[in-house]
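Write out the 3D structure for:
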Amino acid sequence: MRLIAEFQTEKEAFGLQIFLQNHGIKSLYDSTVPPTYRVWVVEEDDIEKALELHKEWLKNPSSSPIEPEK
């Protein structure tokens, strides 16, 4: 598992996670203190594709409109 992104909001981390999963990449996110939300890619073989998708997602983060569960 490898860290690919860090965000200030849970909404951003969740959005990227859903975007990656919609492209067949297993991922998850967690949080640290102070609140930083980190997105992890589970499979090492998916890292390169995930990094490319991360760049694509940053151009239009609203492409993953689902909100995280509270």
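The first strand starts at residue 2 and ends at 7.
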